[in-house]
Write a structure and sequence with these properties.
Layout lengths: L15 H14 L5 E2 L14 H11 L14 H12 L12 E4 L2 H10 L6 E6 L3 H11 L5 E5 L5 E2 L1 H9 L4 E7 L11 H14 L2 E5 L15 H4 L5 E6 L12 E6 L5 H15 L6 H11 L4 H23 L5 E3 L7 E6 L15 H10 L5 H13 L1 E2 L1 E2 L9 E5 L5 H20 L1
Parallel strand pairs: 1-12, 3-4, 3-6, 6-7, 7-8
Antiparallel strand pairs: 2-9, 4-5, 8-9, 10-11, 11-14, 13-14
Helix pairs in contact: 2-10, 3-10, 4-5, 6-7, 11-14, 12-13
Length: 433
Amino acid sequence: MRRNIVHMGAGSLHYEIREIVQVAHEVRDMGRELTWENIGDPIQKGEKPPEWMREIVHELVDRPESWGYCDTAGVPEVRQFLANNVNIRHDGVRVTPDDIMFFNGLGDAVAKVYGFLRREARILGPSPAYSTHSSAEAAHSGYNHVTYELDPCNGWMPDMEDIRNKVKYNDSIAGILLLSPDNPTGAVYPREILDQFVAVAQEHNLFLIADEIYVHIVYNGTGHLHMSEWVQDVPAIAMRGISKEYPWPGSRCGWIEVLNRSKDENFSRYVNSLLAAKRLEVSSTTLPQMSIPAIMGDPRYPDHLSRRESMYEARAQEAYDAFKDCEAVIVNKPSGAFYFTVMFKDGMLNNEQYLEIDNPRVRARIEELVPNVAPDKRFVYYLMGATGIVVVPLTGFQCEHDGFRMTLLESDDAKRAWILKTLRDAIDAYVAS
């Protein structure tokens, strides 16, 4: 074309969680049966939303207004319900319905939140990084995502000294992102860590973003902490949704809670630009929004959340027990979300290791793919070809550590046990090859 039409950040749009699927489909078409451990979809892995929840949605379908547009920021009654829920938290920041804005899933919210920042304004995020955040932040700026370290030898807790140094010596940083519970590590940050994020933001006049999509999937006695409870006077955005919580990932229904908007005029103008961008789209998904007061306000909902937390706590223990005595890896037991990260110790992987693959076509394809890839991606490819299990390489989360992320979602107990045993055996065989 006579002019370059490609956005300068286009090369940063990577999503390893789904990109691995392209190779997996090739392997499947060659005859290898696959077990998907790459993506956080509870429905795909056999979980069924409770019948009472589905009945509520059925009834909403019969209401004509659920088929129409809603207000740009979301259904007013739903935003009022959510604001009331925020405001009953003890000692928290107060919000109004005008501080809540709906999007077509958190992926849409992430794209808008980063996309409408001034290009020179950077958001410091964690490494390992969740790809949706890291890619969107890098794409908006045209540069690699700037990150702080999560420490695998300290339960994947943030390295606060690294954060302080990054902020101190890079004045382009305007905000800090945290995910608690974290994806991909499953770490949940205690109050003393969250208070340190606040202190850094206060000292350097930054805003904070907290992805809280898993805030109601917390276990191991960690306890729930919403952003409004700990953010104090710092301008901030909390991201929430129903995709993992009901679960209803196909609803594409997420929202942001804007905290302390009035504390900074520049931040307030930025938030207004997000609403202006939403007006161009008219509205977000109406039916899923309408379900929120009916489902979250139902007396059965707390028991629903508690049951799921207990379920994932047991599965996290199963996964930890499967790998805890493996000499080749470092594992931490998750305290939230439904992922499990296995990290290879330094020096455990090289470019000569392999797994036996009995299908000649699959073996040939895998051997075509593994030269010049990261060591953990080499393992992931061989694992896929040899066992059919599809996981995500840890380096795909903008991370320098080798490893992989799997899920805790498999609802068939026998198959889940097979997955864990097969993964453990594969690690042992690969390292010994």
